[in-house]
Specification:
By secondary structure, this protein is α/β, with parallel strands linked by helices. It is built from twelve helices and 13 strands. Helix 4 runs parallel beside helix 5, helix 9 runs parallel beside helix 11 and helix 10 crosses helix 11.
Length: 377
């Protein structure tokens, strides 16, 4: 209660102090599997992603940008604007990049100092083998920057073990938390490279060095500016909820959702997983290829007319006509959600003239896949 005996609201919470802010960062570090410095940045994950590139990519350097979806494409633009020469390694959005491809690109471009990679691309539904790629990058001597926004909480993330130097996470996907704050871990090697970059942002919202000097180097005793209090508390609750469930259990739940959607979709006429190999499929989201004679946007609209509560959407940009996406991350990574989504897709396909679309067959295949994955996951 307040001094006026009124109920305490979210606007009346005591200020979030430095000690509590640091404790939240420590919880995030544990989730990320790192003992490196972690900074909780006060904005959506694009903020630390751009901060990492502008801090670590020096003018005249060479960077290898791995593209398996739209975020990888965004990184390339940022790298070029920093004055870096960008070597692009692209893989079809239907799969992942291989460690061998990365090794070959590094052999052909020995001057590469920074490698940028997206762990899982929710927009295209694929995931990359970071552990193996990290070993290749570390042997080469380059820094590895990883976008783990869509993977944290949905699949293993072993930042230190994999040799990731700059790792960015967000709370809005598998953690089922807020979008307004994010976090980045920075290895000692990365700090050295950033400190040596004359163009690294300073006195800027994009400055990692400002956080280091004003927050980390002072023992995290005084915040450099007022924190996004509600978002930070929400992120803490999201991390605590995953810890209470058990990270392994949360990962198994997301893997089971992916397996169920992929198996069920194969039982629906004309639909097929967009990512071809199960091993390359991201646990946080499943992308599906629409029937050849139908627009994916029409399939989504028809399915949502059957059940508007399922986490289904059409892809954006040039893939909009052929790809639809099921966002089974966070609280949506549940058996009932997967089955309801397949039932809605079956009903939508029937409404569009594919009368053989059977929700029962799709549900049966999905249920069996869920059970098998949940047991072995």
């Amino acid at each position: 209660m307040t001094a006026n005996n009124e109920p305490l609201s979210l606007l009346d919470l005591p200020p979030l102090g430095a000690a509590h802010f640091a404790a939240i960062e420590d919880k995030i570090a544990s989730l990320m599997g790192t003992r490196a410095d972690v900074v909780a940045m006060q904005g959506e994950a694009l903020l630390p992603l751009e901060a990492c590139i502008r801090s670590a990519a020096r003018a005249g350097s060479t960077a290898l940008n791995i593209v398996t979806g739209p975020y990888g494409e965004t990184f390339g633009g940022w790298l070029r604007s920093c004055g870096a020469e960008v070597v692009t390694l692209s893989a079809p959005f239907t799969g992942a990049v291989s460690p061998g491809q990365v090794a070959e690109a590094l052999r052909e471009n020995p001057a590469v100092e920074l490698v940028s990679l997206v762990h899982a691309e929710a927009a295209t539904g694929n995931t990359n083998p970071v552990a193996e790629i990290g070993a290749v990058v570390r042997e080469h001597g380059a820094l590895l920057m990883l976008d783990a926004v869509a993977s944290v909480g949905a699949e293993p993330l072993l930042t230190d073990e994999w040799g990731v130097d700059l790792c960015v996470i967000g709370g809005q996907k598998a953690l089922a938390g807020p979008a307004g704050v994010s976090a980045v871990s920075v290895s000692p090697r990365a700090w050295e490279r950033i400190a040596a970059n004359e163009r690294a942002p300073r006195r800027s919202y994009l400055s990692l060095l400002d956080w280091k000097e004003r927050w980390l180097d002072g023992g995290r005793t005084a915040l450099p500016h007022a924190p996004a209090q509600l978002e930070m508390l929400a992120l803490e609750q999201a991390v605590d909820r995953v810890a209470a469930e058990g990270l392994d259990a949360a990962i198994a739940r997301h893997r089971a959702a992916s397996a169920a959607l992929r198996a069920g979709a194969r039982e629906l006429p004309g639909l097929s997983p967009y990512v071809v190999r199960d091993a390359d499929a991201a646990p946080a989201a499943t992308t599906l290829r629409a029937p050849a004679d139908l627009d994916a946007r029409d399939v989504v609209s028809a399915a949502l007319a059957v059940d508007g509560g399922v986490p289904l959407q059409a892809a954006a940009g040039p893939l909009a006509k052929e790809m639809l996406r099921v966002n089974h991350y966070g609280r949506a990574a549940e058996r009932a959600v997967a089955l309801a989504t397949l039932e809605a897709l079956a009903g939508g396909l029937r409404a569009l003239g594919l009368e053989t679309a059977s929700g029962e067959a799709a549900r049966g295949a999905a249920g069996a896949a869920w059970d098998a994955t949940a047991v072995t996951g």
